[in-house]
Design brief:
This protein is α+β, with helices and mostly antiparallel strands and 169 residues long. It has helices at 2-16, 133-136, 145-151; strands spanning 22-30, 33-41, 45-56, 59-73, 83-92, 102-113, 117-128, 156-167. It has a single domain, classed as Porin (Beta Barrel).
């Protein structure tokens, strides 16, 4: 968890000093997390944070999740025109409503920029953290060492899908 916080701070600082930049606010959907998209767009790079929650049949869940990332234009183009980008992201990328599973990954996507909006669509791959049985199952399922060993989750890859729609000033 400390590593994730450190990486988040580095991501935010990486674009803080960019000259011509704009703050974008909008909606994001990342691996089941639905929430606010807060994005700082510089000339060629953007940094974003998505605080949100899972959307399920009953509405929004009561557990808060987060995702943050950094994007860079592939063609060295500007962030205020259409084009492809690559990026790094971290946060709750496990795509699970019942428990948090942090991960870090790589994404590739495309952005469509209009006068007052910017829409992004991306896909990627992440490495998800290992979890002990007690981290995601009821304690009664983890009573014996055999049950714990059988139900522990190893680090594994995960697919990332993301959509954001943001307002520009």
């Amino acid at each position: 968890m400390r590593l994730c916080r450190s990486l988040l701070v580095l991501l935010l600082l990486s674009s803080a000093g960019q000259a011509s930049s704009e703050m974008l606010v909008g909606y994001a959907f990342v691996n089941g997390i639905s929430g606010l998209n807060l994005e700082w767009a510089g000339q060629r790079n953007t940094v974003y944070a998505v605080p949100g929650t899972y959307l399920n049949d009953e509405g929004l869940s009561d557990k808060w999740r987060w995702v943050a990332g950094f994007r860079h234009r592939i063609d060295r183009g500007y962030t205020n025109i259409n084009g492809f980008y690559t990026g790094l992201m971290l946060g709750d990328l496990g795509g699970e409503k019942r428990y948090e599973r942090l991960g870090a990954g790589f994404e590739i996507g495309h952005q469509w920029v209009k006068e007052y909006t910017r829409t992004t669509l991306s896909a990627g791959v992440a490495v998800l953290e290992p979890l002990d049985c007690g981290d995601y199952l009821a304690e009664s399922s983890c009573n014996t060492q055999e049950e714990r060993d059988k139900n522990d989750l190893d680090a594994e890859p995960g697919l990332i899908l993301s959509l954001t729609i943001s307002l520009r000033r």
